[in-house]
TrEMBL record:
Keywords, in A-Z order: TPR repeat
InterPro entries per UniProt: Amidase_dom, AS_sf, TPR-like_helical_dom_sf, TPR_rpt
Domain Amidase span(s) in chain numbering: 1-329
TPR repeat copies, ranges: 362-395, 430-463
Protein name in the entry: Amidase domain-containing protein
PANTHER family: AMIDASE 1, OUTER ENVELOPE PROTEIN 64, MITOCHONDRIAL
Pfam families: Amidase (PF01425), TPR_11 (PF13414)
Domain of life of the native organism: Eukaryota
Coiled-coil spans in chain: none
Length: 478
């Protein structure tokens, strides 16, 4: 493991770095690298490790195995030399989901009683901006696996960063250094900073005297982290703990006892052994932005392998509310067979055509819809746009394009509903206002239609179609 559990690569000055069985030139991830590698290599059926800021989840993702970070405090830390008592947990690695489930229950000392409840899955769409793995192999796999099972509600999508910004009031004071960043990125960067500050403060409190007395020999990276922790001053410690409590409350309110949040476990570009065994600062920043949600809040998280993309392991994570560990472990086991089927299907599909260097499955379906629309195959276009929306329901263009096809079919109410959704997602979508205006005109809602065309003219004063439509409606209403 990384010395003092203070690293994320798996390197140790005294004992070297374990070899990642999935990719020999790929770092195994840390700090619990030995445990992760032992499981991934098939040397043991399961292994324990500690997870402070990602020290089980990172190796699980890099080595392509299951990794479990329990809710903070539900598994005893007795016998552990703690890095940071507010963040440290005893976690678990395994390859087989049945063993993973059984050992997890033993750690939790949980009963085997099954509590039947419907499961709600929420995709954190904003988190997936940090992963360029095609959604065909991630979001689509999870969605299709859920569709094949009973007891699961239809999946939802949301911007979790915006939710957190609205429900963690103290976060505003931590976001000030990141005002130049996009709001969602600023929110996650602030949460990451709070988590890392809390770790450094508690590490300093726990170990400063020993380090200054013993002066241990440490690797360069770990030594640098230790120096930063010991040399830092902490004037707002109470605010760190308050942010932790508010984030836990916000996620508990969102997830309750039946919700599962889906995020990428790690970003999509990985560090190799031959790059001086270091992660780039950009990768580390994004890594902690993804790991801080469960790390800081103390919620439980399971990293789940979903096959490979371009020879690299794919890992998505399920997060449940603090204390919902048994529910989360049961869900992972329940979904396993269905997930394996979808992973196999996704891996056997031909690679999607790359129109612009970075097109996922939903964009491909949109392009197919556009082609069908140009060929005047309106029903076919509607079907393609509908499939695109199923994969990504936060893209205004998909709704707006389907509305155009509905208009051609004379389905004016459906066109109006699609435009409503497009405008909700993008208030400056001129085409959505024009198409909603047209639908409302055909539904004889002249006043509302005129307002839509006026709004389009405000956004694009030279838009001839909007100007002509407004004049036409003025004559009709007079």
């Amino acid at each position: 493991m990384d010395e003092l559990a203070f690293g994320v690569t798996g390197e140790n000055l005294h004992y070297g770095m374990p070899i990642n069985p999935q990719l020999l030139l790929q770092i195994p991830g840390g700090s619990s690298s030995g445990s992760g590698v032992a499981v991934a290599a098939g040397l043991v059926d399961f292994a324990l490790g500690t997870d402070t800021i990602g020290c089980v989840r990172i190796p699980a993702a890099f080595c392509g195995i299951l990794g479990y970070r329990p809710s903070h405090g539900v598994v005893s830390n007795i016998g552990i030399l703690t890095n940071s008592q507010s963040l440290c947990t005893v976690g678990l690695f395994a390859r087989d989901p049945s063993i993973f489930h059984r050992v997890g229950h033993l750690l939790l000392q949980a009963s085997q009683t099954v509590v039947k409840r419907e499961k709600r899955f929420i995709f954190a769409d904003d988190f997936f901006q940090y992963s360029r793995i095609p959604k065909q192999k991630t979001v689509h796999v999870i969605s299709k696996a859920i569709e094949a099972l009973s007891g699961y509600q239809p999946t939802k999508h949301m911007n979790v960063s915006h939710y957190i910004a609205s429900n963690v009031p103290i976060l505003k004071e931590f976001c000030e250094p990141y005002t130049k960043l996009h709001q969602g990125t600023a929110t996650l960067q602030a949460l990451s900073t709070i988590m890392l500050s809390l770790q450094k403060y508690e590490f300093k409190t726990n170990h400063e005297e020993w380090i200054n007395t013993v002066k241990p020999s440490l690797g360069l990276e770990i030594s640098a982290r230790v120096r930063v922790a010991l040399n830092s001053t902490y004037d707002n410690v109470k605010h760190l703990y308050k942010a932790r409590a508010e984030l836990r409350a916000a996620l508990s309110s969102l997830l309750k006892d039946d919700g599962v949040l889906v995020i990428p476990t790690i970003p999509d570009f990985l560090s190799k052994h031959n790059s001086k065994r270091k992660m780039s600062h950009e990768f580390e920043d994004r890594l902690f932005m993804l790991l801080c949600l469960a790390g800081l809040s103390g919620c439980c998280q399971v990293a789940i392998p979903l096959g490979k993309h371009e020879s690299y392991p794919i890992s998505l994570s399920f997060i449940a509310a603090h204390g919902a560990d048994k529910f989360l472990l049961d869900t992972v086991l329940d979904m396993h067979s269905s997930l394996q089927e979808q992973i196999s299907l996704a891996s056997s599909l031909a690679p999607l055509p790359d129109f612009n260097g970075d097109m996922d499955a939903s964009e491909l379906l949109k392009e197919k819809g556009n082609a069908a629309f140009k060929g005047k195959q309106w029903n076919k276009a509607v079907n393609f746009y509908t499939e695109a929306i199923k994969l990504n329901d936060s893209n205004a263009t998909y709704y707006c394009n389907r509305a155009a096809a509905y208009l051609e079919l004379g389905c004016y109410q459906q066109a109006e509903a699609d435009c409503n959704q497009a405008i909700l997602l993008d208030k400056k979508n001129v085409k959505a206002y024009l198409r909603r205006g047209t639908a409302r005109e055909m539904l004889v809602s002249y006043k509302e239609a005129a307002q839509d065309f006026k709004h389009a003219l405000v956004l694009e004063p030279q838009n001839k179609a909007a100007r002509d439509a407004e004049k036409r409606l003025r004559r009709l209403m007079s």
